[in-house]
Amino acid sequence: MFFERPESGEIAVLVHLDLAEESEREDPKEFEELALSAGADPVALITGSRNRPSPQYFVGQGKAEEIAEVARQHDAKLVLFNHALSPGQERNLEQLLQCRVLDRTGLILDIFAQRARTYEGKLQVELAQLEHMSTRLIRGWTHLERQKGGIGLRGPGETQLETDRRLLRARIKSILSRLTKVRKQRDQGRRQRQRAEIATVSLVGYTNAGKSTLFNRITESEVYAADQLFATLDPTLRRIEVADVGPVVLADTVGFIRHLPHKLVEAFRATLQETIEATLLLHVIDAASEERDANIEEVSSVLHEIGADTVPVLEVYNKIDLIDQAQPRIERDDQGRPQRVWLSAATGAGTELLPQAIAELLGDEVVHQTLHLAPHEGAFRAQLYAQNAVLDEQVDEAGQLALEVRIQKRDLLQILTRVGIDPERFLPPVEDDPW
């Protein structure tokens, strides 16, 4: 955008190192899936191991020359590293390899740029890209002279670099201003839902866990879903009806990944706000994945980072159709509350259990009884019908109404207050805690 670099191509060489420090290790299989999701054509995977990265090339001198030879053999124009590279390491590698070098963060940013569809999503991706690019501007002008003291040593390089930096800062400022407006609009929508007391249930989970497929199954929508990493980028909201709870807003959000770049977490904070302020989180888990436990820990880590670790969570173990003899079921804790739901969004097996579990977690105490109303209490009757709470109605010879209702205790109390009827007439008073 602002500087010259080697041309990019789809034929790519992948590089993965096993580092001694466990926290810095990445999954080579996931890395290959990332490359494929970005549209690359991996022709070789070069692996190695080191105690710590080399300051110059990240890999050692010999490994770097091996990468260069493999790239020449396959005529590859792109080398992807399954690690975060410093600007200096990227510059040194591109000089040695004579091809485009991209680290794990840059690869994820490229995938996000391809997936963004909404105005907000495109702004968030561009913001993350510009902030990532701001530390890498200088290498694009190494072919120009730097301004130095002395006659004959002055050149245009630093002047052009400063121009680029000013353009970059101006564009970042403009994007932040636009995102502020989008966030205000999104906050207004959330406040309206809160005033209407509509619960928000947000789908979270590791990328490619099946969130969008489950979302489509529950809401009967046609949100884009594919067997690839980061198929969903922009949040999608749908309103559904849940028995004993009423209307609920279901949100499909971007998937998480191991070592999610911090720039992306910051840029997508407006999108992730749906997760932070949700009433309930559905943590969708790929039950058939070999990395299941590690992925669960990674999602929990990201939730903690964005401040959503205090929101109640219901774990949804998806893809049980890929596990032998796995059956749909609800697992409960010691208090009998739903803790895990096992299902398959692809086949639909067990998906009917999810609304049941949501209703148990979101629903207050449900009142299911027969209410006896006088003929002049038609306003109360109308309010009950408006809530779809009446299951059966009988009228005796004196015109007395007998209504069989099923409604949340909270909603019944609101109706009674609205029509001016003493709640104790239908609901027993709350007893003091004997303790």
List the helices and strands and how they pair.
Elements: E1 11-19, H1 28-37, E2 41-50, H2 61-73, E3 78-81, H3 87-97, E4 100-102, H4 104-115, H5 119-133, H6 157-195, E5 199-205, H7 211-219, E6 236-242, E7 246-252, H8 262-267, H9 269-276, E8 280-286, H10 292-306, E9 313-318, E10 329-332, E11 338-342, H11 353-362, E12 366-373, H12 378-386, E13 390-395, E14 401-408, H13 409-419
Parallel strand pairs: 1-2, 1-3, 3-4, 5-7, 5-8, 8-9, 9-11
Antiparallel strand pairs: 6-7, 10-11, 12-14, 13-14
Helix pairs in contact: 1-4, 4-5, 5-6, 12-13
| Mean pLDDT across all amino acids | 78
Question: SS-based structural class?
Answer: alpha/beta
Specify the CATH architecture of the largest domain.
3-Layer(aba) Sandwich
Quick one: biggest sheet? Answer: 7 strands, mixed
- What is the percentage of strand-forming residues? 15-25%
What sort of overall outline do the alpha carbons produce when their principal axes are compared? elongated
Cofactor: Mg(2+)
Subcellular location: Cytoplasm
Subunit structure: Monomer. Associates with the 50S ribosomal subunit.
Keywords: Cytoplasm, GTP-binding, Magnesium, Metal-binding, Nucleotide-binding
